[in-house]
Write a structure and sequence with these properties.
Layout: E1 2-3, H1 6-21, E2 24-25, H2 34-52, E3 53-54, E4 71-77, E5 82-86, H3 92-95, E6 100-111, E7 116-127, H4 135-146, H5 151-160, H6 167-179, E8 188-190, E9 194-198, H7 200-206, E10 213-215, H8 216-221
């Protein structure tokens, strides 16, 4: 078997979801807990990859599912495409999470006649780590930087956006932004003890060909 590469992971996800879309899943019949559905899909995906590739699964210590590829896997429902992730610093809203995201988005239906669920995966999106910041925060920063913003302008913007920072932290981050402007983020990230990531905009953007985000099912069909 070959080692798992980033391109192989993307192609493998598209192939796996085609199989999943054709499969009835009695184990998930009547299950409304999105975490349980996500865990089932993740384990099935890991098992599929292990049949074709050599790779090391992530651990709680690594914090992400594919540490060697710097990719974290998220599985979520189309009805509310969102998930949570560990909070590391407020700078993640600006510069991204520090790793790529692969987001598998399903629509679940229960069939009472067969007492089985069916997962219809409508999107599989891959978001480059440089674009895993918050959409509105990065857009606003890039706009004011284009208007020759100074340090005080950026500090005021960060304060208005209610980033979880004290005065010293805001100034440090503002200086970093002046020296190294961020990429445009594609997520909606809500402040909390854990970041709440929302993917609605990312799904829409993934179908437009914008740089930094891929719709893996769309690409596989072409």
């Amino acid at each position: 078997m070959k080692p798992l590469t980033l391109d192989a992971l993307k192609a493998g996800a598209a192939d796996f979801l085609k199989l999943m879309n054709e499969k009835s899943v009695p184990e998930l019949f009547g299950i409304t807990d999105g975490k349980a559905v996500g865990t089932y899909v993740e384990h099935a995906f890991y098992a599929y990859l292990q049949q074709h590739y050599i790779y090391t699964r992530g651990s709680s210590a690594s914090g992400i599912d594919f540490p060697q590829l710097e990719v974290d896997l998220k599985v979520t429902s189309i009805r509310q495409p969102q998930s949570s992730c560990p909070y590391q610093s407020a700078a993640q809203k600006v510069y991204g999470l520090g790793y790529h995201l692969m987001v598998l988005i399903y629509d679940k239906k229960d069939h009472t006649d067969s007492k089985a669920a069916q997962l219809n995966f409508q999107h599989a999106i891959f978001i480059h780590r440089d674009h895993t910041g918050d959409y509105q925060t990065t857009r606003g920063l890039l706009n004011i930087l284009a208007e020759e913003a100074n340090l005080e302008d950026i500090i005021a913007f960060l304060e208005d956006r209610n980033l979880p920072l004290d005065e010293i932290g805001r100034e440090q981050l503002a200086r970093q932004i002046l020296q190294s402007p961020p990429g445009q983020g594609f997520l909606t990230i809500s402040n909390a003890l854990q970041w709440r990531l929302q993917y609605g905009r990312a799904v829409s953007l993934s179908m437009t060909g914008v740089s930094g985000i891929e719709n893996l099912l769309q690409e596989a069909a072409e």
